Write the structure tokens for this entry.
Amino acid sequence: MPDADELVANALAAVRGTDVRQAERQLDQLMVGTGAADGTTAVDAALLRRLVRALGRLWPRGWQPVDVDRITSRRLDARAARLVREAMAAQRREQAEPIPAWWDDQLRELTAEVRDDGHDVLATWTAAEGLDRADALRAAVDTLALVESLPPIAVLRPPPGTTGALTARSAGTTRSGSPMLDRVRALLAKAESTTFPAEAEALTGKAQELIARHSIDEALLAAGSERGDVPGGVRLSTDTPYAGAKALLVQEVAAANRCEAVWSDDLGFATVLGWPADLVAVELLYTSLLVQATAAMLRGRAERRSGSGRRTKVWDESFLNAFALRIGERLRAATEAATDAADQASAETAGAERLLPVLAARGEAVRERLDTLFPGVTRHRLSVRDAEGWSSGTSAADRASLDVGGGRKQPRQVPGRPDRR
């Protein structure tokens, strides 16, 4: 009789194949177990061990806990994602030091807790999900197959157990304890809750002005110190529906905040590269603008004249694409106005130490980071599939004046899909 590890290996091989009957036979073998008195317990332990090992191999390959949770939910379901969270909590107990604080922050946000050694992860998860043993084993094997199949992605931050894991400054370092960010969050919360589009856009414009000033202050502070900051990165979800429109919104918000964005459509996220304060700003703005864009889209859909023969999905996508491009123009105008004012002030007070060379050097560092992490990135042009949706989306984003200057620009190319790895 095969041991538990062999049974798990056989089940995985069968699930990855094309013979459905063979896969069911191997799952039946898992049900039976090793034949020993504790055979089913041994199978559960073997499944968990292999899942924990697979997770441990992902961290040096660029994956972070939130990334694994997101793609498990996307490709399987919420039930599988909850199993992965439990496994990540168990794997955390085995991780080598040092463990960066941001890693534990991610695990806490996913509600995963590090439990004691006696905790039977698979049995507890099975009971919590209300599954019988056959369905639980099938779901566990599918989850393991997915985790083991994930490709390498860009390493944005040193993972646990590596040099620099505790000392590297990166995204999120300015997330808390900042009165400016608290003001931005308050403005964006008001923008999301108001039923008046003009007020929402004015509030968002004010938030971008505050963000731009804060970014400039951070740049000047870094230029005058030896903090050793380097460009970092974050990944933002671009799940269906309308994944392409969400990716475009990420790119527009990133560009307005001196960041670079790359969309990995097959993995369901966009990677944003930039300096820590700018990355926090992009996260805040993207999350808020996605809420605002969706609300505007639903209002626009309701206002469409009855009898329209165009498919709603095509109209929605065109609306969101137009909204993203126009909002991007307005955010960039706010950033440019703040930069011009700050540069004029620095010229009057700092002589030759002007702001623009500092920003240029930081921008070049971000582009170098992009070239290093994504050497094969490609671009593709945006296509308009519904003129009515496009016009409505532009109007929704252009309804109010933000009074920050800047003229209308032609739509920019959208950063496209990295070469599949």
